[in-house]
Amino acid sequence: MRQDHIVCMMPFADGYKLHSESFRSIAQQTIDVHLMPITRPKDHFTFGKMPQVFVKKIRTERKGISTCRNILRELALELEDEFILHVDTDVVLASDHDVEDMLQFMEENPRVAVLGLNTKNFEVKKLDPPHIPMACLMFRRGILGQIIFHNSKYFRKCNCQMLCQDVRKIDHPDGGKWEVRYLDDRHLKEIGR
Length: 193
Known about the structure:
The chain has 193 residues and is of the alpha/beta class. The chain is 29% helix and 24% strand. The strands form two sheets. A six-stranded mixed sheet has the order 2-1-3-6-5-7, with helices on both faces. Strands 4-8 form a two-stranded antiparallel ribbon.
């Protein structure tokens, strides 16, 4: 049964306001998008199930974007939706059916755990890409519950690539591992901050 809406996790940087062009691109989708925004919180120093290695390295004066993503992840997991969207605040969707296209693809491809739309200036490798920017992703709820968003400032690695690696380590119930894919060659716009 197709979802009639999708929840969209949206982490905000300190003091950042959602640009009207970004908001319009989300509001005009052919499927209802329910925004779940959060800003970098001053009163959250950890999130549930945070590995001790992260707790030891957190700077208490400023929360990273990964901390926001993990707080949003926990809130999204309290819902019953099968698919969860993640969109950064500077992304402008390319058409009014981007989210519906992603949802349809996920429903038709049961081996795909995470699906992305490209926001960078590089040619996409749709099958088994090593890296998908986290700017616009759709997750299966079950997969979202098995990953943690990493904070690259502490590990000097790309947090997007780390996400892809973590997802590909999860066993698929039908055998093999889960896949991470791009939907197609469409290119989204990012507004400079």
